[in-house]
Design goal:
By secondary structure, the protein is mainly β. The protein has a single domain, classed as Umud Fragment, subunit A, CATH 2.10.109.10. It contains 1 helix and 12 strands. A hairpin with a 3-residue loop joins strand 11 and strand 12. The longest helix is centred in the N-terminal third of the chain and has 22 residues. The radius of gyration is 17 Å and the shape is globular.
């Protein structure tokens, strides 16, 4: 009997999430995070609720975003917004500076102390990095490090699996 009660709760929760997804313009990306690039923030095989790009007025630094790259529009990536349009992002020995000011990143899983580079983020584009910098294949290593706003799919607002976790 207890199993049926728990199953009923799971089904009810799923119906509520589905209803809210349609009503609020949210879409559920079934995202398999195949690497540890966003650890500890996002676990492997996490599933998310994502606010569609068409409903977002602007992206902010720190947002976790689902996007694709222009050269691979069929593959979704999940990374954190670090650089906004028009900014200078300087990475020195694991530390990130935005227009010369240090960026406080309390979500970092690991850093890559050997990496240094400066990026000038073009208008209408963003720079993305993973939270687990030592293990993340992100903008630092892409041939084209910037992602144009047209390739952003949406912002993660809720992790629904393996646990419930809201993202600001």
């Amino acid at each position: 009997m207890k199993v049926l009660k728990n199953l009923g709760k799971v089904i009810a929760f799923g119906i509520v999430v589905a209803f809210l997804s349609v009503w609020m313009g949210l879409t559920g990306f079934i995202t398999n995070v195949p690497t540890g690039s966003m650890l500890p923030t996002l676990q492997l095989d996490s599933k998310f609720l994502v606010v569609k790009d068409s409903l977002i007025k602007e992206y902010h630094r720190g947002d976790i975003v689902v996007f694709c790259k222009e050269d691979d529009p069929d593959t979704f990536l999940v990374k954190r917004v670090i650089g906004l349009p028009g900014e200078i992002i300087d990475i020195r020995e694991g530390a990130v500076y935005v227009n010369g000011d240090p960026l406080v990143e309390d979500y970092i899983g690991s850093t890559d102390l050997s990496y240094s580079n400066t990026f000038f983020v073009p208008e209408d584009s963003y720079l993305f990095l993973g939270d687990n910098r030592a293990e993340s294949l992100d903008a630092r290593y892409w041939e084209q490090p910037f992602v144009h706003k047209d390739f952003l799919k949406g912002r993660i607002v809720l992790e629904v699996y393996p646990k419930l976790k809201f993202f600001g």
